[in-house]
Automatic annotation (TrEMBL):
Domain DXP reductoisomerase C-terminal: 267-384
Organism: Rhizobium lentis
Binding site for 1-deoxy-D-xylulose 5-phosphate: 131, 157-158, 182, 205, 218, 223-224, 227
Descriptive protein name: 1-deoxy-D-xylulose 5-phosphate reductoisomerase
Reaction catalysed by this enzyme: 2-C-methyl-D-erythritol 4-phosphate + NADP(+) = 1-deoxy-D-xylulose 5-phosphate + NADPH + H(+)
KW Isomerase (keyword) present: yes
């Protein structure tokens, strides 16, 4: 007979100060906090004050700021707390090296790639919010997970929904997955209206509260483009098995269609804590204070086909999947540079897709990646080419 309490699960949260990171700490608190979990590492970037507060409140062992400039202020904010402090790229790798049973990968963008891969290789279960890992590194990332022996738990709401309704024993009978998309703030806007939208209107997502970059990617549907590529790798699908349908209420988070004509869907309030809680408690379901759906009040759910003329990102995702190789890394790298330029007012909203497509065409000759160096090289070539094109002012 065993009487001792089981050891708490050790969690690390990469990107704890972001939207997903804060929701993760909230879920951890709801599921027993320090009674059930030990926080190994928290990482942030410039928001040192929040990171220090989170680290103290959760009893984290190590706090890492991705920015060396903020090392001293993080150190002084945590002095006397006994919490270790690190910074920069080496600090993120130290974070990945620390013992953890479960890692939330919620750093935004390509910056999340190296630490998430390292944590996967160490064998932690990876709760994956950072879709860029799969978009850029695809099969190489999956290989790291296999080699480490941990589980890959999708957190992106669409992929988490598919994960919830995909019957493992019936994988051979999966005909298609249907990713839902809210359509964002410009679902009904004309091309002319979309030509001069601002960051403020683009960031105002109708249903989800998210970080700045993913909010703008949702408005351009680049987020859905990344999610198509993410789904291809996660669920081993051919490009033609991945469909996108606009569903403005964001109640159905995604669906799986089977060979008998059945379609299974996962529904819920648009609250990322459901997906995070499922990834944390898998295969059990946690008890969480998420708003319950009231179908009588909802009354209806709407669907429309997406318009690939106003939202060319969807077409670019198909192009990247068909071309294969490092085109996912190229699409993502070019898009990140174009997105940053849009945020800084140097590029128009619609030109983000023009730049990305030109870079994809210019780098279509790159060979498939033999290792991660090839992925990072494709990413940096895409960034450089995107910057050159913007300097040439060929599009705007
Ligand atoms: P966010 O901008 O709110 O937070 C990003 C986090 O990454 C912060 O902790 C920030 O400090 C950190 N960070 C920023 N730049 C960094 C750098 N250069 N190096 C290391 N860390 C850095 O973003 P978010 O909305 O929480 O999204 C995080 C990830 O999850 C993204 O990949 C996003 O696509 C994905 N995701 C988010 C949502 C959502 O609802 N927010 C849903 C699905 C997927
Ligand atoms: Mg999503």
């Amino acid at each position: 007979m065993t009487t001792g309490k089981t050891a708490p699960r050790r969690l690390s949260i990469f990107g704890s100060t972001g939207s997903i990171g804060r929701n993760t700490l909230n879920v951890v608190e709801h599921l027993g906090g320090r009674d059930n979990f030990e926080i190994s590492v928290l990482t942030g970037n410039g928001n040192v004050e929040l990171l220090a507060r989170q680290a103290k409140a959760s009893g984290a062992r190590l706090a890492v700021t991705a920015s060396d400039r903020h090392y001293e202020s993080l150190k002084s904010a945590l002095s006397g707390s006994g919490i270790a402090v690190a910074s920069g790229k080496s600090g993120l790798m130290e974070a990945a090296d620390r013992e953890a049973d479960w890692v939330m990968a919620a750093i935004v963008g390509t910056a999340g790639l190296a630490p998430t891969l390292a944590a996967a290789r160490r064998g932690a279960d990876i709760a994956l919010a950072n879709k860029e890992c799969l978009v850029s590194a695809g099969d190489l990332f999956l290989k790291s997970i296999r080699e480490g022996g941990g589980k890959l738990l999708p957190v992106d709401s669409e992929h988490n929904a598919i994960f919830q309704v995909l019957e493992e024993s019936q994988r051979h009978a999966v005909e298609r997955v249907i990713l839902t998309a809210s359509g964002g703030p410009f679902r009904t806007a004309s091309l002319k209206e979309m030509a001069d939208v601002t960051v403020e209107t683009a960031r105002a997502h109708p249903n989800w509260s998210m970080g700045l970059k993913i909010s703008i990617d949702s408005a351009s549907m680049f987020n859905k483009a990344l999610e198509m590529i993410e789904a291809r790798h996660l669920f081993g699908l051919a490009p033609e098995q991945i469909e996108v349908i606009l569903h403005p209420q964001s109640i159905i988070h995604s669906m799986v269609g089977y060979t008998d004509g059945s379609v299974l869907a996962q529904l819920g309030a648009p609250d990322m804590r459901t997906a995070i809680g499922y990834a944390l408690s898998f295969p059990r379901r946690p008890n969480l204070p998420i708003e319950r759906l009231d179908f009588a009040r909802l009354a209806r759910l709407d669907f429309e086909a997406p318009d690939e003329v106003r939202f060319p990102a969807l077409r670019l995702a198909r192009l990247a999947m068909t071309r294969g190789g490092v085109q996912g890394a190229v699409l993502n790298g070019a898009k990140e540079v174009a997105l940053q330029a849009f945020i800084e007012g140097r590029l128009s909203f619609l030109a983000m897709a023009d730049i990305t497509e030109r870079v994809m065409d210019d780098l279509a000759h790159l060979p498939p990646a033999a290792g991660m160096d090839d992925v990072f090289s494709a990413d940096s070539q895409a960034r450089q080419r995107a910057s050159e094109l913007m300097k040439l002012d060929l599009v705007g």
